[in-house]
Write a structure and sequence with these properties.
This protein has about 250 residues and is α/β, with parallel strands linked by helices. It has a single domain, classed as Vaccinia Virus protein VP39 (Rossmann fold). Helices cover about 35% and strands about 20% of the residues. It contains 9 helices and 7 strands; from the N terminus they run ααβαβαββαβααβααβ. Strands 3-2-1-4-5-7-6 form a 7-stranded mixed sheet, sandwiched between helices. α1 (about 5-10) runs parallel beside α4. It is globular and about 45 Å long.
């Protein structure tokens, strides 16, 4: 991610509908397994500019890592209590085997060309009985200019994520889609805006400031999905979420 890209994300991720809604879904999955004050040792692998960190600290002590020095600098500005930050690639984590009870990764592995070592490292630093919770963009045919701008190398199916998790010794407890209700419209737009023949430096992401009423309405759609996912698995969607145990 370019430094200016980190600045853009830092400026919007606390309020932009997609970040707000997907965080609520992600945290709802955690609530199905853990309670506040669980005193877990947690790794946020690819913490970016740190919007997830304060939410994770309610479950325990958090370490955030990111390969971007600019992202780590912006995350430090949040001054999240109970959180340590380290610059590192998630394909070469500077931690001992079995160091964490919970590892989270929110749309990060998709930015790596060779994603196999990333799955391997997340499993390696997880203790026996611990969990990995991963969010990734879905369906490679939907790669668009936005993916190019945010350095997404590929998108995934549920089968892709399940296969990689099992390959590194994890047992998949749940793999589901999210961002389903908006999928038909979003997919049509993505197909219409296929990856152009331009460099990542020229590509533009979909992040745009929206009128507050539209931003709130879109977030409410994802809040509805959060409630649905507490009861059923959604059959398709723009994101894949996996919960796996070691």
């Amino acid at each position: 991610m370019k430094p200016e890209g980190s600045q853009v994300i830092h400026g919007v991720e606390d309020s932009y509908w997609w970040y707000v809604g997907m965080r609520s879904i992600f945290l709802s999955l955690l609530d199905g397994h853990y309670q506040a004050g669980s005193d877990l040792k947690i790794l946020d692998a690819g913490c970016g500019t740190g919007a997830m960190l304060s939410h994770l600290t309610s479950y325990g002590q958090v370490v955030g890592v990111d390969i971007s020095s600019e992202a780590i600098l912006l995350a430090r500005k949040r001054d999240v209590q109970g959180c340590e930050l380290t610059q590192s690639s998630i394909t070469d984590l500077p931690f001992e085997d079995g160091a964490f009870d919970l590892v989270t990764s929110f749309d990060v592995i998709c930015c790596i060309d060779d994603y196999g070592p990333a799955f391997q490292e997340l499993s390696r630093v997880l203790r026996t009985g611990g969990r990995v919770v991963i969010n990734l963009p879905a369906y490679n045919p939907l790669l668009s200019e936005h993916d190019l701008a945010v350095h997404n190398k590929r998108r995934y199916t549920k089968a892709d994520v399940t296969q990689e998790a099992e390959r590194v010794g994890l047992t998949v407890e749940r793999v589901a889609h999210a961002n389903t209700l908006l999928f038909p419209i979003a997919a049509a737009v993505r197909v219409a805006k296929k990856v152009p023949a331009k460099s990542a430096s020229e590509a533009r992401s979909d992040l745009r400031t929206l009128p507050p009423v539209i931003n709130r309405s879109l977030a409410q759609v994802l809040f509805l999905e959060r409630r649905l996912l507490q009861k059923v698995d959604l059959p398709f969607g723009l994101s894949v979420i996996c919960v796996a145990r070691k």
